[in-house]
Write a sequence for this structure.
């Protein structure tokens, strides 16, 4: 990370609330705060891993960043273009640059379209290529993701899970995107296939210079692929740090608990790390606890946690955390987080 | 697919035969007497002679096989001969309706066009109305359009056709005088005016049936659309930057149509069976009307034949629905 | 109220058919007529149907030698005069009758009508394999002889005081020999074309026939009255329901004539207010009655004995009980509720023709609960704790059955309440009409087997002569195992005096004496309370106010004078 890097994605105060309607008249009685005031950047060519339990809002966050939802509030800049407030029709033109690989390769492919149709459809929409040119590109993409060209006219159901995910990736790559959000792309796959797909993603990143936002609940896989890792809890980022820093020295009690649950391949170390068992359930995002979202489950909870929501601040260079435990230390580092984020920023 | 279809067809034959036997035996054992509806002034000795002349003297299985042979071979050939003018009509006895003492096949040929026109159009218009309503209702779920659509289809579905039919007649025929309350089956469309008259006389029964069918199908359409609208591939399509129209009409609609098309296909036999009441109210002399009147007067040959045809239609359209499913949904493969 | 409507039909006919207006009309001048029969016509050959609707439709094409007019009088139709004893047409020994066809009569195809056609009609209907519905009209005939081209003599096997059954009335019409000669016996149903479009002598010719749907008629060019029929074409639509048919005449005016409007009285009244049509009601021999079983229908009896005269009814054999049941019924109320202007309460078995209706039984018209109670007390039936009478440990409990029909179920409920008042417990049962009126000897639910204590239905007789109808109540004519449960002595009545009196009637040729005998038989039967008459039911049709010349006729086809119907010009 020595060369100067450009911010490809800048997200500021992103909020995605889903209204709750109830009663006979379906009055608006509250919101599910799936993503609540999240800010982060992604640099060109890097992979930002997002981890968290299911339901924490990481998938929503990904979709919101691509504006698959109409966001509640906040700003999203991709490649310098503000898309947070753009209309869906205006966004369509920009779609080719930002793509998504979805979790369930079965459900995310239209069952009534052939591989050619699925991969080629964005070209129909966004290019004026000839048929032959399109087919050429489809073949190219199939080669790139390791699919046999002969399968071009088959329907998704006749492929295996891993192959379907390759179709999904090929489709995402169709129009040379710069930024791809991988939303749990391997969660629905067999373990043996997972590595293949992840390797493919890495290989494509190297070859095409892609930027990934990699959403996963699999901490080991994120450790493998991500350059930086963000931890989400109940709609908020609670910790964001370079991969090694986060895995070596997790600051937030929640991150510590998460990491303690990761099985270590080295049996000797098993005794070294004591598993932190979290008590209680994740609160409903419609009704988060007062103060820190994590206060009702935190093993190190303090009084202040139940009153004031801790700020998401940069504790060390590039290491952000939202926890009152570090607020004393945070005082000293206060000067540091005058910078928006990582110090290398040019 | 072809071998599947052929296999299914082969299986359909014994199914239909068993149905025919059951239909025949049930009606044969049913209480009720073809002379029961005759005036009491006709003496019992004469009734007995009438029964003998109807062929009721023979053992039941002899009558069954005669009837089956005539239903499956003689009558279809006569009907075909009548339609094409080919000289293929076999000699020998035909199935005679007890009320009219004339071949059942000839009566069916007269009845089918009315049923197809009135009830078929009712179904067709029902579908044409239902699909857009279902699509919009689902796309704008909980909007006022959806709420109104839900209400109207609930009403259309729960209010029986004999009620809506009477209401239509009282309103549009009696009070307003716009449409005739009785269907004239002898009317021939020759020119614009006679076409206009045909349109007028067919309007009310078709409207009643269309309303009923539309409310049913639009519910299916809406539910199926809702199922698909939340699917991941729809999000995929959006993320590809496809236009909203493409997303809804190409991706969602085409997938949602799969179950709806099969429901529509399975519903086609009810085009023939389901409109008995409506046919009676508007005096449309179709198949359903022929059936219900035959039941009233215990005209078993007619009832048996029509019921049997309905059974064949139901078996056939179930098969068609399955095959259609296979064609429309690439995930389904029959081998 | 009832007399008003009765008179309406005949009065209207007289008023609307002034002779001067007739002269201006000619064949076809009235254009098109629309008739609706909500029960559609199945065939145009009445011999193969037996239904009233088929008989009516056929009556505008096929005609008898003579028919009954609206007053029940015999009227020459295809003959110049009615043969009688006086004019020598009927033989002195009452064993033959000779008809002379009108000269110059043509079939609608232009060929002459001859005596051979008349003889053929007889042969057609009496063929043993034909299943002819009017076979009984030709019963007791030894031979029908064509004397010459226009003369036919019917020879009877026995003395036949009423020789006016064969070839008389809409049921026994003359069919063309040339058209039907290959359609005898078992081949009758195969002649579909002939059965659907018979060649006739009547005012109309079938131009299009769709079974159970619609018939189109055009005027018969060869009709014997050159100026008739006035309507050029007739559409005889079928199908729908009685309500729709009434609406089409009364409210929308789409139809000119609707047949058999059996609707609730209040519905009819409301419809009539539409003003486009008028109700035509006339009373014939149709009468709604309760039959009381003289035999024991108990299911405990062995098969073959149940419901036979071997076992008299344990309760109803006592005339006092039967009379009490009759007196407890409020007939006027039943009439009002069930039929309104279309019914008349009655206490007679023979309710029409008017001359034959007995004037001696009107005492039953008024409900008399006290008298009914007295009768039961006399008979030894004591009130039990629950109000139901008991005698020798047996409760006065009756099973009362009828066919499934809204009016009949109303009647059942009302009568149940009436009988309850006099301490009779009534259990009700209703049976699908197709089963109830069927004659399947295997079914225990037919009105013939009568496995109940009381049952209600309506019956009537053909023509104006009640002799055969009275004959049905003779001893031995009851349904029983030996006759496969066929027979019309439904209540198993058996009275030697009655049988003797009937035999006298059957020998008598003098009309006045016959009338007396009919009334005497009627009185004997109803005063024995063998059977409880309830309501005489009228025939109800409706006609548009724009059609004139209609004369309602309960003794023959309603369309007997169809040729004279015309459109009233505005």
């Amino acid at each position: 990370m020595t060369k100067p890097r450009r911010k490809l994605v800048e997200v500021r105060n992103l909020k995605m609330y889903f209204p709750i309607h109830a009663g006979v008249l379906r009055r608006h009685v509250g919101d599910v705060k799936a993503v609540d005031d999240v800010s982060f950047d992604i640099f060109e060519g890097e992979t930002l891993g997002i981890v968290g339990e299911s339901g924490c809002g990481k998938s929503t966050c990904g979709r919101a960043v691509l504006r698959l939802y109409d966001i509640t509030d906040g700003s999203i800049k991709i490649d310098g273009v503000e898309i947070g407030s753009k209309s869906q029709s205006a966004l369509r033109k920009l779609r080719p640059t930002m793509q998504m690989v979805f979790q369930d390769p079965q459900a995310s492919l239209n069952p009534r379209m052939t591989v050619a149709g699925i991969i080629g459809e964005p070209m129909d929409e966004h290019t004026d290529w000839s048929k032959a040119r399109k087919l050429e590109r489809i073949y190219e993409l199939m080669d790139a993701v390791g699919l046999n060209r002969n399968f071009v006219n088959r329907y998704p159901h006749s492929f295996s899970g891993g192959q379907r995910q390759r179709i999904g990736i090929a489709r995402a790559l169709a129009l040379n995107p710069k930024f791809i959000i991988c939303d749990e792309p391997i969660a629905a796959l067999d373990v043996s296939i997972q590595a293949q797909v992840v390797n493919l993603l890495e290989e494509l990143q190297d070859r095409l210079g892609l930027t990934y936002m990699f959403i996963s609940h699999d901490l080991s896989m994120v450790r493998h692929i991500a350059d930086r890792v963000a931890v989400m809890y109940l709609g908020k980022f609670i910790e964001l740090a370079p991969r090694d820093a986060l895995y070596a020295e997790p600051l937030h009690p929640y991150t510590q608990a998460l990491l303690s649950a990761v099985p270590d391949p080295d049996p000797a170390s098993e005794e070294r790390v004591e598993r932190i068992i979290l008590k209680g359930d994740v609160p409903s995002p419609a009704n988060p606890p007062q103060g820190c979202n994590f206060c009702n489950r935190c093993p190190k909870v303090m009084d202040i946690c139940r009153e004031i929501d801790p700020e998401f601040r940069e504790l060390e260079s590039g290491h952000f955390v939202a926890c009152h435990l570090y607020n004393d230390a945070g005082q000293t580092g206060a000067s540091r987080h005058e910078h928006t984020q990582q110090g290398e920023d040019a | 697919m072809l071998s599947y279809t052929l296999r299914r067809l082969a299986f359909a034959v014994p199914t239909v035969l068993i149905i025919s036997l059951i239909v025949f035996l049930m009606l044969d054992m049913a209480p009720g007497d073809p002379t029961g509806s005759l005036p009491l002034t006709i003496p019992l000795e004469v009734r007995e002679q009438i029964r003998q002349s109807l062929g009721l003297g023979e053992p039941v299985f002899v009558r069954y096989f005669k009837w089956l042979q005539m239903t499956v071979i003689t009558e279809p050939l006569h009907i075909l001969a009548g339609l094409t003018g080919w000289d293929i009509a076999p000699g020998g006895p035909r199935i005679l309706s007890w009320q009219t003492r004339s071949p059942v096949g000839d009566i069916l040929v007269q009845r089918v066009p009315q049923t197809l026109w009135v009830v078929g159009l009712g179904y067709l218009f029902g579908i044409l109305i239902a699909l857009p309503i279902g699509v919009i209702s689902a796309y704008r779920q909980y909007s006022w359009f959806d709420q109104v659509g839900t209400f109207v289809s609930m009403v259309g579905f729960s209010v029986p056709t004999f009620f809506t039919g009477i209401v239509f007649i009282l309103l549009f025929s009696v009070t307003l005088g716009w449409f005739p309350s009785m269907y004239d089956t002898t009317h021939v469309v020759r020119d614009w005016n006679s076409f206009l008259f045909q349109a007028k006389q067919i309007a009310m029964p078709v409207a009643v049936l269309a309303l009923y069918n539309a409310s049913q199908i639009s519910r299916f359409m809406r539910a199926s659309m809702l199922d698909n609208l939340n699917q991941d591939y729809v999000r995929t399509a959006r993320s590809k930057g496809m236009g909203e129209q493409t997303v809804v009409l190409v991706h969602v609609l085409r997938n949602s149509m799969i179950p709806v098309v099969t429901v529509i296909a399975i519903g086609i036999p009810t085009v023939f069976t389901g409109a008995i009441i409506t046919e009676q109210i508007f005096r449309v002399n179709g198949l359903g009307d022929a059936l219900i009147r035959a039941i009233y007067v215990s005209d078993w040959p007619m009832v048996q034949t029509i019921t049997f045809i309905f059974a064949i239609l139901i078996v056939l359209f179930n098969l068609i629905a399955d095959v259609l499913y296979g064609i429309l949904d690439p995930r389904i493969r029959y081998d | 109220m009832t007399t008003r409507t009765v008179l309406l039909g005949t009065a209207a006919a007289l008023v609307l058919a002034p002779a001067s207006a007739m002269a201006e009309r000619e064949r076809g001048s009235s254009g098109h007529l629309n008739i609706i029969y909500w029960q559609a016509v199945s065939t145009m050959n009445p011999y193969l149907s037996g239904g009233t609707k088929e008989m009516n439709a056929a009556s505008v094409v096929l005609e008898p030698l003579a028919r009954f007019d609206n007053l029940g009088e015999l009227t020459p139709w295809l003959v110049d005069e009615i043969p009688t004893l006086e004019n020598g047409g009927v033989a002195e020994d009452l064993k033959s009758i000779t008809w002379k066809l009108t000269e110059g009569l043509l079939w609608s195809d232009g060929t002459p009508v001859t005596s051979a056609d008349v003889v053929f009609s007889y042969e057609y209907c009496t063929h043993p394999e034909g299943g002819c519905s009017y076979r009984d009209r030709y019963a007791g005939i030894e031979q029908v002889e064509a004397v010459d081209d226009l003369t036919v003599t019917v020879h009877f096997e026995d003395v036949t005081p009423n020789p006016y059954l064969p070839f008389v009335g809409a049921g026994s019409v003359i069919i063309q020999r040339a058209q039907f000669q290959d359609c005898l016996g078992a081949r009758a149903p195969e002649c579909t074309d002939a059965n659907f479009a018979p060649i006739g002598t009547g005012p109309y010719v079938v131009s299009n026939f769709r079974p159970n749907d619609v018939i189109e008629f055009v005027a018969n060019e060869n009709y014997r009255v050159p100026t008739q029929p006035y309507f050029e074409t007739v559409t005889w639509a079928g199908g729908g329901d009685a309500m729709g048919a009434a609406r089409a005449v009364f409210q929308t005016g789409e139809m000119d004539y609707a047949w058999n409007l059996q609707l609730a009285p209040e519905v009819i009244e409301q419809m009539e207010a539409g003003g486009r049509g008028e109700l035509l009601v006339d009373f014939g021999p149709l009468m709604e009655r309760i039959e009381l079983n003289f035999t024991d229908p108990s299911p405990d009896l062995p098969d073959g004995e149940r419901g036979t005269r071997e076992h008299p009814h344990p309760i109803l054999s006592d005339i006092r009980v039967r009379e009490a049941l009759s007196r407890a019924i409020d007939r006027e109320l039943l009439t009002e509720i069930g039929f309104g202007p279309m019914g008349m309460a009655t206490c007679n078995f023979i309710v029409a023709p008017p001359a034959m209706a007995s004037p001696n039984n009107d005492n039953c018209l008024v409900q008399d609960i006290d008298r009914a109670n007295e009768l039961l007390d006399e008979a030894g039936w004591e009130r039990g704790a629950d109000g139901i009478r008991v005698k020798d440990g047996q409760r006065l409990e009756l099973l009362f059955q009828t066919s499934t029909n809204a009016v009949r179920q109303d009647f059942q409920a009302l009568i149940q309440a009436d009988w309850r008042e006099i301490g009779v417990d009534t259990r009700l049962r209703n049976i699908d009409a197709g089963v109830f009126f069927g004659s399947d000897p295997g079914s225990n639910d037919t009105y013939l087997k009568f496995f109940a204590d009381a049952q209600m239905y309506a019956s009537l007789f053909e023509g104006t002569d009640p002799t055969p109808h009275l004959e049905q109540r003779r001893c031995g004519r009851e349904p029983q195992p030996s006759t496969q449960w066929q027979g019309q002595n439904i209540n198993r009545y058996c009275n030697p005096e009655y049988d003797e009196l009937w035999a006298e009637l059957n020998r008598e040729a003098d009309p006045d004496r016959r009338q007396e005998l009919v009334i005497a038989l009627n009185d004997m039967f109803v005063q024995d309370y063998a059977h409880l008459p309830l309501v005489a039911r009228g025939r109800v049709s409706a006609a548009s106010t724009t059609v004139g010349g209609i004369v309602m006729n309960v003794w023959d086809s309603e369309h007997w004078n169809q040729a004279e119907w015309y459109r009233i010009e505005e």
Summary: The mean pLDDT of chain C is 85. The first strand of chain C starts at residue 31 and ends at 37. DSSP finds 16 helices and 21 strands in chain C. Chains C and A do not touch (no CB pair under 8 Å).
